[in-house]
Design brief:
4 helices, 6 strands, 6-stranded mixed beta sheet, 28% strand
Amino acid sequence: MIRKKLPLSLSKLKEQYPELCNYTTEIYLDVENLKDANEIKEILETFKKKIKNVFAIIVKGQYNDKLYKKEEKGITAIKLKDKTRNYRIYCKEIYKEGKKVVLISPYHKKVQKNQQDEKIINILDKIKSYEYDF
């Protein structure tokens, strides 16, 4: 089944970082995983500066173990951490027609160091199976 997605505008990011205009990466939000719109908005607002840095890394096709890291084949995680919270927002990278498309699934989970969590494993397996139409 083809899933619904919403494109995220990168125009302000590209204004701030003009070197990003040369890249064709697109970022989408998987709206079917969005249980609570306020929840993801709160995360994005709380970590606004880090999100901007992560999006720049994604657009450039780079990885950074502290911010945006490969979890499993085709699945990456945005790592957001402050004094009291430690979140992951899982992404699926798709390469289509010379473009890299990153779909953000707003699952997040407070995790602790070295935690093996069956729920996270299940989430990653689910995200791998998602299909999108472009």
